[in-house]
Give the backbone structure.
Amino acid sequence: MRISLIHNPGAGDDDQPDAEALSRLLRRHGHAVRYQPGDEDTWPAVLDEPADLIVVAGGDGTVGRVAKKLIGRDLTLAPLPLGTANNISKTLGLLDYTLDEIVAGWENGERIRFDAGVANGPWGSRYFMEAVGIGLFARTLSVADRNKTLKKLGDAEAKLAYALDMLRDRLHACPHHRLQMMLDGTPRTGNYVLFEAMNMEFVGPNLYLAPDMDPDDGMLDLVLVTAEERDALEEPLENWRDGEPHVPDLTRIRAATIELEWTGFDVHIDDEAWPPKDTDADSALTRIELKVERDAVAFLAPQRQLKRA
């Protein structure tokens, strides 16, 4: 196949293969490779070049950015998980394979259709692949982006463990937000320390919040934790830190459309915190609407069923 390889050389930990090793791997399996560093501003131009497959070697940030550029285009994306959390690849079951096995599996692989989330709000309109959230993770994300210790860690597992420790340390001090929502037209109000509208099984540092998600059902899996339910997250955070895929007993609601009012709280859209800390976030737009664009992206993976809890 003609492959456009988009690679984030800074993804994951210090032991990841470099550009030469990745290109050599693909050529060994008989593919023609066009290499594009994903950390260059001009990377989207490679999507206009002739290709049978777009291969993305990196983490969720790089895979998600490319996936969002492919919405509405007849191109298939094949991730090679090199990141820290690899939530998209984990949802696809790719972490059960070596990179060589993933590439070999493309020959008889399956194309898995995924919806994309659409987030309309004070920021405008944006696609998301993993989740949009409010509360604990959104507040911690902005802190983690500036954490010097986290940046210095060279091992992916150590990064995940440290990030989960940050969440657990902030769990009981995290203020709640009073959210007035409409879920497919049905009102719901509560004081929540965690709100995550999920389009994947995992978000952030492998938070396993939507184990029964269906990637192309036209629905978002909304996970809610009230101020009184903080303890329900403490044990899962500890188990996730130890690598155990513990499924927490949390409120989960499937909805095609979620609407709520923005009152100035932090929001995360995939791995981006909003509002940015260095900008004035005042906006006349206060309404947030989350919905789904059906069958937006096709992923190629070795033939298997999506993992279920």
About this structure: The helical segments are 19-28, 60-69, 87-91, 99-105, 136-144, 148-152, 156-170, 231-241. The chain has two domains: 2-115+297-301, 117-294.
